[in-house]
Amino acid sequence: MASSLRTAAVASRIFAASSSSSSTARLSLLRSSPSLSFSYSLKSLAFSSHFSALQRRSSDDVWSSGRFCTAASPRCAASDRDQLKSAREDIKELLKSKFFHPILVRLGWHDAVTYNKNIEAWPQRGGANGSLRFEVELKHAANAALVNALNLIQPIKDKYPGVTYADLFQLASATAIEEAGGTKIPMKYGRVDVSDPNECPEEGRLPAAGPPSPADHLREVFYRMGLNDKEIVALSGAHTLGRSRPERSGWGKPETKYTKDGPGAPGGQSWTVQWLKFDNSYFKDIKAKRDEDLLVLPTDAVLFEDPSFKAYSEKYAEDEETFFTDYAEAHATLSNLGAKFDPRELLGEIIDAPTQVAS
Ligand code: HEM
C-alpha cells in the first residue's frame, strides 16, 4: 500500500510538471566522436546466433524489409490503451526467456536523450518520438547494436499496430526495469511517432563516456535536456544493469568472471556483479572500488568526485529506497522528453494509474 501511494504521489508530481520551454542553459551540442563505424553494430548481429530466429535476422533483412521505416511511412497516431497493456504482457513474457533487459533500457534512453529543450518545434527538438527506428539514426556510432533491440521488439510492434514506436520503446524500457526487480515507474503513454527519416536528430547529442571533463560534459548534455544533478546521478544508476562491449562502444573488457558464462551472449564488462538485477549496487560498487572486473567509466567515476553529484551518490549507495524513488521519477521524466502526446501534451494515459491507487 505504501509503495502504491508512493507511486501515485510520484505519478501526480510528474503529471503536474509542465514541459519547460524557458531556456537559460547554454545550447551546446556535443561534438560527434564516431569512434566506431556502424559495421560494428552489423557485426554484432552475429553474436546473437544462438538466440531465436528473431534475433538471427540479418541487417540486410532489417533494412530492406522496410520494417524500421527506412522510407517515409504514414503518420502514426498515439497508442491504443488495450494494445499497450497486451504489448506490456508480451514484453514480460519475452523477458522471461531472454536476457535483454539492459539493451531495452538503453533503447528507451537513446530515443529520449536526443531532446534539446532550447528547440521548441517538434520533432526538431528530438526526444522520445520513435526516430531511433530509422537506419540513419541507428547508424550513429553511439547507437551501435541497438538494432538488436529493434529486432527483438519489432514482432510486438507488428502484433500491436495501435502502439507507436515511441511508446513501445519507453514501455519496453520501463517494463525491463520492473522485471529486473526494479521500481515501478509511473509511465504515461500516447507519444506520437515521427514518420520520416529526415526528422531524425543530427548525430552528436548523446553523452560520451570519456570526455576531457566528465562533470562538465554530463551537465552540458543533461542540462540541455532540462534535467538536473539529481537526475544525472539517479539515471546513471541504470548501469546497475548490463554490460559494455569493446567491439560496440570501445569501452569495457572483452569478458570478465561475471560475464564469461552469460546469461545470454557471454562477454563484455558489467558495472555490477548481478547485472540483470536492478538495485543500488552500482553506487555501492563504485564507492567501494570493489573489483577490477567491474566497469567504471569516467562518467561513472565522476559521480563520486564532483561534490554535487557525490551527495546523491553517497545517499543512493546507503539507501536503496531513496534511489528507487528518485530513479522512478527521473526515468518517467526522461521518457516524456520531447514527446508529443496525442491529443494534447500531458493528456497521455497512465495505464497503471487506477489499479495503483486502488490496490
Ligand atoms: C551518463 C551518461 C552515460 C554514458 C556516457 C553512457 C555510456 C554507456 C556505454 C559506453 C555503454 C556500453 C555500450 C556497449 O558497449 O554496448 C552503456 C551501456 C548501457 N547504458 Fe549507458 N551511458 C550513460 C547513461 C545512461 C543512462 C541515463 C541510462 C538509462 C537510463 C543508461 C543505460 C545503459 C544500459 C542499460 C546499458 C547496458 C546495455 C547492454 O548491456 O546492452 N545509460 N552506456
From TrEMBL:
UniProt feature coiled coil, ranges: none
Taxonomy, superkingdom: Eukaryota
Main location: plastid
Residues of the Plant heme peroxidase family profile domain: 104-350
GO biological process: one example: hydrogen peroxide catabolic process
Entry keyword set: Calcium, Chloroplast, Heme, Hydrogen peroxide, Iron, Metal-binding, Oxidoreductase, Peroxidase, Plastid, Potassium, Transit peptide
Matches recorded under InterPro entries: Ccp1-like (IPR044831), Haem_peroxidase (IPR002016), Haem_peroxidase_sf (IPR010255), Peroxidase_I (IPR002207), Peroxidases_heam-ligand_BS (IPR019793)
Catalyzed chemical reaction(s): L-ascorbate + H2O2 = L-dehydroascorbate + 2 H2O
Signal peptide region: none
Location within or outside the cell: Plastid, Chloroplast
Class in the EC hierarchy, top level: oxidoreductase
Region (Disordered): 243-266
Gene Ontology MF annotations: heme binding; L-ascorbate peroxidase activity; metal ion binding
Cofactor annotation: heme b
One of the record's GO cellular component terms: chloroplast
Function: Plays a key role in hydrogen peroxide removal.
Family: Belongs to the peroxidase family. Ascorbate peroxidase subfamily.
Listed name of the protein: L-ascorbate peroxidase
Organism of derivation: Hibiscus syriacus (Rose of Sharon)
Lineage, top ranks: Eukaryota, Viridiplantae, Streptophyta, Embryophyta, Tracheophyta
